[in-house]
Amino acid sequence: MIWNPIKELEKVFSQMEDFYDDFEEDYLPQIMLKEGAPPFDLAEEDGKLILFVDLPGVDEEDVDIEVKGKNVLIYARRDKDIEETKLIKEQRFKGTFRKKIKLPYNVDTEDSLARLKNGVLKVILKRSQDEEKTNIEIE
């Protein structure tokens, strides 16, 4: 049998593709959550910042919001809702995670509002000149 380098390259590329597919499907969501995801949107309306953070499966009592200067820190915990022995594949992160979001300016937490509804945390923040550390309660 004659060695065919093209066939060997095709095998390598196929293996790399399988590896990437497995990585993207099984490991990337975990890495993203551990590295500070979940995803968020930040909008501005009438001098207020409106922050939307996806927190599916997280209970209100498992979320803490802290504001310091131009940063919002969101700490959350998602518990396991399925017994591990029954799982065939696992992509959803369970455990504690933190999200740090840099804002364009300092905010005043006194008139701030936070709500968690249908897995989306909505935080409304008013512009401020002071840099102080405070927490926001979820209503």
From TrEMBL:
CDD domains tied to this protein: ACD_sHsps-like (cd06464)
Entries under InterPro entries matching the protein: A-crystallin/Hsp20_dom, HSP20-like_chaperone, Small_HSP
Any Pfam family matching the protein: HSP20
Positions of the SHSP domain: 31-139
Family annotation (PROSITE patterns): SHSP (PS01031)
Gene3D superfamilies in alphabetical order: 2.60.40.790
Family: Belongs to the small heat shock protein (HSP20) family.
The protein's name in its UniProt record: Molecular chaperone HSP20 family, IbpA
Organism per entry: Methanohalarchaeum thermophilum
